[in-house]
Amino acid sequence: MSLKVSHHLLLCVPNKTSSLCSNLAQSKQSWEQLKFILKKLRLEEPNRPEGIVLRSKVDCLRICKSGPILLIWPEGIWYQKVFPNRVEPIINRHIIKGQPIKEWVLKNTPLRNLGNKVH
User: Fold this and answer.
1) Would you list the DSSP string of 16-84?
2) How far lies 71's CA from each of 1, 16, 18, 119, in Å?
3) Were both Cys, which of 35, 47, 49, 78 would link to 106 (CB 3.0–4.6 Å)?
């Protein structure tokens, strides 16, 4: 059985305070907001016609001064300063409407020639 994947969201939420991470509390709050919004909008449903939206908490994406960082695949969009109040607009505009919020994008590193199915 294969699972159609729409997007995979990776949010930096370090396990411990680091001299590099200046926004640990904000990262944790953003993670909770991300889980809440994805559930509220039913984007994590495996039978969603557009595909499921996966989320992963990652320890560090190595761009700490601009954090929290949210990396969205397959587009490879790196959002900076993803505080809790930015999570819902990013989900609504980028994931649902397909329109990245350019003024919040730090960089873009798109995947090329990869399918969107998990086996």
Assistant:
1) S--SS-S-HHHHHHHHHHHHHHHHHTTTT-TT-TT-EEEEEEES--S-GGG-S-EEEETTTEEE-S--H
2) 27, 20, 20, 22
3) 78
For residue 60, the model assigns a pLDDT of: 73
Convert the pLDDT of each residue in 26-62 to its tens digit.
Answer: 889 999 999 999 999 999 999 999 999 999 998 877 7
* pLDDT tens, residue by residue, 73-106: 999 999 999 999 999 999 999 999 999 999 999 9
C-alpha 97: how far from its chain's center?
15
> Which of 91, 76, 87 minimizes the C-alpha distance to 26?
87
Q: Tokens for 40?
A: 């509220």
Sequence spans of domains, the chain: 3-114
**DSSP state for residue 116 in the 8-state scheme:** S
